[in-house]
Amino acid sequence: MAPPPHVTQAIEKLKGLLGERLSTNASVLDLHGHDESWHTTVPPHAVCFAHSIEEVSAIASVCNDLQVPIIPFGTGTGMEGHVVAVQGGICIDLSQMNQILELNQDDFDCRVQAGVTKNQLNEYLRNTGLFFSVDPGADASIGGMAATRASGTNTVRYGTMRENVLSLKVVMADGRIIKTAGRARKSAAGYDLTHLFVGSEGTLGIIVEVTVRLHPIPESIAAASVYFDDIESAVAAVQLTMQSNIQMARIELLDSAQMAAINNYSKTDYPVKPTLFVEFHGTKASAQEQATLFGEVSDEYGGGGFAWTANTEERSRMWAARHDAAYAAGAVRPGARAIATDVCVPISRLAECIRATREDAKNRSNLTTMLAGHVGDGNFHFVFLVDRNNPEELAQVKDIYGRLIKRALEMEGTCTGEHGIGIGKQQYLIDEFGVDTIDAMRAIKSALDPKGIMNPGKKLPSDS
Amino acid sequence: MAPPPHVTQAIEKLKGLLGERLSTNASVLDLHGHDESWHTTVPPHAVCFAHSIEEVSAIASVCNDLQVPIIPFGTGTGMEGHVVAVQGGICIDLSQMNQILELNQDDFDCRVQAGVTKNQLNEYLRNTGLFFSVDPGADASIGGMAATRASGTNTVRYGTMRENVLSLKVVMADGRIIKTAGRARKSAAGYDLTHLFVGSEGTLGIIVEVTVRLHPIPESIAAASVYFDDIESAVAAVQLTMQSNIQMARIELLDSAQMAAINNYSKTDYPVKPTLFVEFHGTKASAQEQATLFGEVSDEYGGGGFAWTANTEERSRMWAARHDAAYAAGAVRPGARAIATDVCVPISRLAECIRATREDAKNRSNLTTMLAGHVGDGNFHFVFLVDRNNPEELAQVKDIYGRLIKRALEMEGTCTGEHGIGIGKQQYLIDEFGVDTIDAMRAIKSALDPKGIMNPGKKLPSDS
User: Fold this and answer.
1) Residue A202, SS3?
2) Which residues does A398 contact at the CB level (< 8 Å), separation at least 6?
3) Measured distance CA(A406)–CA(A143) in Å, rounded
4) Shortest Cα distance, chain B CAs vs residue A360, angstroms
5) Backbone angles phi and psi of B282, in degrees to 5
6) pLDDT, tens digit, for every residue of B5-54?
7) B332-410 sits in which CATH class?
8) What's the CATH number for B220-328?
9) Less Cβ around it within 10 Å: N or C end of chain A?
10) Is the pLDDT of residue A464 over 60?
């Protein structure tokens, strides 16, 4: 579709700035108009491949002057349509800003450009004894992970991006460049803009640099899988583990259907039973001690077939299988899309939430479902495999998903543990926070982006 | 001083609402016009003792309508003049809102009214196996601690209020009541208002309820003091301890002068040498293991006289002495005020920062100084004992303190690790963040408090 005149004007100006690094090629636009979710593609009018903060700032100035939407883009691996260009405009692709700028090994921190991916950073850190802990399934960019407040399997021990971003450099809607914090471990100075931008989904500014915390690679890492007769027992074991304050580095739940999908996709041969993948970090003695404590809890609920990974390679294979769980789910029903729910509830309500959700899904649909979850955090993904062209199936998912979110909110949980709001969950935000809280969020949005050009149509529900 | 007409009008309206719980008694006003810092008292025009969120909301509405300043007040134990009524107005004393509302033992969280103090909460938790970790020197209110992003000796392991507030209920300037989050351990839903209000110093709204994280009391707690020949060795031991990833629960530095002051004030008989107070939490085996590792590091720097506390009582005495260090310092020079600096720097720069600061103070003044610090965080308090009526002494402190902050900022640290900005440090904020970042903070302030009634004259530098 031809862009409206003010967008055309912006594109002309930006061509002067970027030359070949501005693209209006249809397939490039298409690639930037969707992520890994089920949301429908809407391409932007142009894609700018930025190489510097100054360029991002100049692009923002042009767009702000002409009131043209800006959509920041990392790797396109989001889960709620954050990059879908619902109002068209200019996509800023930050993937070529992928330099690691400064490693402070003695302070356990590292400053990177927004386009650096998590695997790239960990590869870079390989011989330092440090690692970056946040590990969503995809090899996402660290800027995108900050923008969506991403987490993953290590969160139960090391936290989400909320706990692992020390400071940000952000280009504001009008092109101004701000730094949100220094490198001290704590500060009581200004307002906490770092946390305001973490999870803001590109609606308040463009994250261009991230200073992340690193963690020392533990002396000892022990990982195992353990299966249970039924999912209730597996979840009960998780609840007791967390409530006993056993120091888990990872504790991931996968139901039988998900295990079958994993075996098929990742060529593994795990028993097709509700399974926990677990990991312990520490000194040799302390990791061993925690593993023993976990074993006792697991025994209480009939956990069986404890299979310890013997070496780094086996362990990597297990976690790679876990990280590919969403892709494995998608492969079960060819042509179908996987729609993954993402609620997170207080640990004490986890078993009840999972039980009620499984029953509800069984009672209200015939869809294939599976479950995988960062259960140590109270976060799980209940996945539906859906024919997107079948309105009845979509309606069923919508119904069950809506009821699941209502259930999670009644339990004082959240509609999204880690995927974010994007275009998929705006309608639940008022239920979660209340209209006055959303108004406060809107006031902040208007204050920092008065013309409403930053990733419009995302995150906050429209106030009409 | 008689209040201006619009304030008188507000007071009349509020009397109708609160009756005897609104006071204009001079000594009550005076008590509410200062904290524990050296800043000069400025009393508010009236003090309201609120009993409910609805009352706080009603007070805010009245003040907002008439454009009267509001100053939230907890225990008055702040360190940067946060409650000093620089523009007069209405102080809302929240100390009578001191109910513990909901304990979720299985989720390690607890919801309290803002006036509950840290000791009150820990007393309440005594038989639950859980504790609230954040421990500033004073028995501060949890609302006030959230507002100032407080921390303390446990921060190196358990974090500051930033890490320990799960959710807030806040009365906005116009009286609206918002809730910032649910109780899930993580969420990628709305903007992170929780963290925006933590550390906002009463300038964005009135914190009326706080849901805090609790931590399980470890199976084993081992504490010790160890002294060094010189402060350089003590600091070097701290740096190596942190960089070796030894799991300290507490690691506090006190210089010789501070140890002498403590012995005198707390009737202890520690060697008058640079000393570390340390503590280890864990299972019996893991606490022992960490203590051994620390012992090895300490040995390397000539740490001597390792004195383990034999029981809970001895341990409590040691930490009580530590918590009273500021009062102990103040008692050294009768009639003098203690002015405590509060910078925080990356761990790798700590030794250099402390060394340069001690030298600078020696070269540029004859003042009595001492040092106490949460050194595991890179945070330390360099304390001057000053005759407030002596302009020369005040000028010396101002000079040395300004140079210390400049030094800390050059090291990518912060001008305040835990005391906040209040009225004492606004002039350093632009140096720390840059003018564009401060402008973004101002935009947020204006958006949430358009009439500028929330604790005016605090936190952000005026933009004139």
Assistant:
1) coil
2) none
3) 31
4) 22
5) 165, -165
6) 999 999 999 999 999 999 999 999 999 999 999 899 999 999 999 999 99
7) alpha beta
8) 3.30.70.2190
9) C
10) no
Res. A462: pLDDT tops 90? no
Fold of B5-93: 3.30.43
pTM across the whole model: 0.97
Helix (H) or strand (E) holding A310: none
What phi, psi does A305 have (nearest 5°)?
A: 60, 35
Give the B window 23-62 contacts with A, CB below 8 Å: none
Asked if the C-beta of A415 comes within 8 angstroms of chain B's C-beta atoms, the answer is yes
Q: State whether residue B369 is helix, strand or coil.
A: strand
Question: Are A250 and A153 a contacting pair, CB within 8 Å?
Answer: yes
Q: Is the dihedral of CA B459, B93, B120, B54 positive or negative?
A: negative
Residue B160 has pLDDT above 60, yes or no: yes
Q: Is A334-410 assigned to CATH 3.30.70.2740?
A: yes
Query: Residue B141: pLDDT above 80?
Result: yes
Token readout for A410 is 């009644």
The CA distance from B210 to B310, in Å, is: 36
Query: Number of CB pairs < 8 Å for A and B?
Result: 273
Q: Verify whether the Cβ–Cβ distance B413 to A148 is below 8 Å.
A: no
The pLDDT of residue A1: 67
β-bridge pairing B177-179 and B215-216 = unpaired
Distance CA A158, CA B101 (A): 29
pLDDT digits (tens, 9 = 90+) for A187-203: 999 999 999 999 999 99
**Could you give the CA distance from residue B168 to residue B149 in angstroms, rounded to a whole number?**
13
Give the HSE-up count for residue A439: Cα atoms under 13 Å, Cβ half-sphere: 10
Q: CB pairs under 8 A, 24+ apart, for A149-152?
A: A149/A198, A149/A199, A149/A418, A149/A420, A149/B186, A149/B187, A149/B188, A149/B192, A150/A418, A150/B188, A151/A374, A151/A377, A151/A379, A151/A417, A151/A418, A151/B186, A151/B188, A152/A374, A152/A418
Domain boundaries in chain A?
Answer: 5-93, 100-216, 220-328, 334-410
Does the CB of A175 have a partner CB in chain B at under 8 Å?
no
Residue that the structure tokens 């660290």 belong to: A142
> Do the first three CATH levels of B100-216 and B332-410 match, i.e. the same topology?
no
CATH number given to B100-216: 3.30.465.10
Average pLDDT, integer, range B304-329:
92
Q: Is B132 helix (H, G, I), strand (E, B) or coil?
A: coil
Residue contact B421–A188, C-beta within 8 A: yes
Nearest to B421 among A189, A192, A438 (CB): A189
Which chain B residue has the Cα nearest residue A409? B182
User: Which strand (E) or helix (H) includes residue B347?
Assistant: none
- Across all residues in chain B, what is the average pLDDT? 96
B273-288 average pLDDT score: 96
Backbone angles phi, psi at A293, to 5 degrees: -60, -45
Q: Is the pLDDT of residue B203 over 80?
A: yes
